[in-house]
Design a protein that fits this description.
- The complex is a heterodimer of chains A (410) and B (298).
- Chain A is α+β, with helices and mostly antiparallel strands.
- In chain A, helix 3 runs antiparallel to helix 4.
- Chain A is elongated and about 80 Å long.
- The two termini of chain A are 38 Å apart.
- The relative contact order of chain A is 0.10.
- Chain B folds into two domains: 112 residues, NAD(P)-binding Rossmann-like Domain (Rossmann fold), CATH 3.40.50.720; 145 residues, Rossmann fold.
- Helices cover 33% and strands 22% of the residues of chain B.
- Chain B starts with 9 loop residues before the first strand and ends with a helix.
- Classes of the chains: A alpha+beta (410), B alpha/beta (298).
- The interface between A and B is large, with 68 and 68 residues.
Amino acid sequence: MGDYLAAHFKCQSTIFAPMNIHEYQAKELFDRFQVPSPKGKVAGTPKEAYDAATWLGVKNFVVKAQVHAGGRGKGVFKNGFKGGVHLVDSADSARDIASKMLGEVLVTKQTGDEGRLVRKVMVAESVSISKELYLAILMDRESCQPVIVVSTEGGMDIEEVAEKTPEKILREYVNPLAGLQAYQVRKLCENLGLQTTARQFGRLLHSLYKLFIDCDCSMVEINPVVITTEDHVYALDAKFNFDDNALYRHPEISAMRDKEEEDPREVAAAEYDLNYIGLDGNIACLVNGAGLAMATMDIIKHYGGDPANFLDVGGGASKEQVTAAFKIILGDPNVKGILINIFGGIMDCNIIAEGVIAAAKETGLPIPLVVRLEGNNVELGKATLAASGLNIVSADTMADAAQKIVAAVA
Amino acid sequence: MSILIDENTKVLIQGITGAFGARHASLSLAYGTQVVAGVTPGKGGQKFENVVPIFDTVGHAVQETGATASAIFVPPAFAADAILEAADAGVELIVCITEGIPVMDMMRVKAMLVGSKSRLIGPNCPGLVTPGRGEKSHGGCRIGIAPGYIHKRGNVGVVSRSGTLTYEAVWQLTQLGYGQSTCVGIGGDPINGTNHRDVLEMFNNDPETEAIIMIGEIGGNAEADAARWAQKHCKKPIAGFIAGATAPPGRRMGHAGAIVGGEEDTAEAKKRILTECGIAVAETPSEMATTLLTRWGK
């Protein structure tokens, strides 16, 4: 995953966006860009799994649960069935395994206790592996270039490799204007000790680089790239992250978004152009601007409170947005109080105050609310809040606001 | 003096006829900034608010008006092109306000600007203000979207990735009676034109700037890099603040650049590095100005 990559490859500043895709969707992208991967098909019912296995027409299959979380192989289903990845040798057993996975909840070390509902499985050709490699391409923020990361230690926990044997991890930076050069691929193949399969690996790498650029990825990680006993090179398990800012030019990738795999509060927030990230605390905050929003969370923590979320309403703070934000915030049962912190630089604080009052009335405001307004027309804004008759506590500075909300929920 | 811009800077605005660009062009004019040209392809020959001539290309606008700085307000899909057009026209200071530009676009822009005479600020930034000497700092140079009236002309340089957090710091200073030389918002994106260190160097060389506030956040190592540079070269007192101490790892906190990836780009690590480099770190965002004044001996 990106955070391991970032932490242990010293690419601290790696960029990766939240949008993930399923393995079978990654396979679709691989096919489109001619990145070789084992034949496979997605199935939503046991019958489809049976048909997929028949269609593959090989002896050995692998049936894999499709969820956005790693550690599937060692995962356990809530129905007691063990393993989200199974090797089978007939279409009948592919169907049986699929029936034990589909509609069931898989718990892995990355899903948390609540686990993830499996809606689809992938049935793929099982290949006999002679060698496993690690390959990733990511955006490196320091150099403002894509960097290719490879290792001979494929199939392992790559963070462990980076920790114990950092010399086994190689990086190659690519000039974004020139693109990946043939010599760079030769160099990587040599360092990976590839001989008979160098040409195939090179083709895979060129194709993957094209995919990375053309699809506006922020990270693509294949662990492992396998070399089969027949000397074929395949991308086996892939993780993708895409740049959210670029999704507008990739409708086919946007369509791969699986909202069922995302926090429903975040999905709802996105519909109102709110930037929301749910956390575990009990003080909700609503702030304009990302930096100020982070700083507001920090100051709540500083005064002994625990923020329930990050929420940036952007440059403005319209009545509709504030109302939507209130609903999302109040939908979180942990929330015991709300802090609004708006620096109305250009916006009129009185208009913001009116929006807050309207939202509070519409949602009923069952919990304490502290509002800190600053900026343009702030005196009138505060007066409007005070005259509203609602239980709104006004604050002057961020410190004042944080102390008041922490006291209110204590 | 000030850095990058002053009251005589001639500014052009790319995207002056869009709602966002028009609004802030008006506010800059009202602030007393010399907005001398607008650029909107296809609208050349018209005038903005009956005063500011609009051109089809940046090249023509520069030729006719002598503008040396540009503010870019065009939508994300066209922003990379707008930056490169401004650079091609020889604009010295390009300030890209646009939020949401694809990283791949900025990666190419960054590579293409190597060796260019233009300096890029942003993207995804509030822009710059060199406050004026009039009432509520009127008469200054405002490029971007910051509220002008919160400023006051003075001797503190402010550099930050975030918009509203910059306003917070500026307002704290102004209320305490301390003005600013120039305030620079470098933007919240992972790939930007100018970083903290570049701005610190300029403040260090600016005789009017006597003290500096540097505001950073989680993600990347720009703040640490700037702090290490300052330890060796900067003669002026600096206060710092890093936002995002409570941000969970691996989540993008609004700004595309604000993600805790590794151990070194957490708020804790950055604060530690800043402190080690002799920068006074504000414990909370409410204390950015007071932390500076203490360090400055005021």
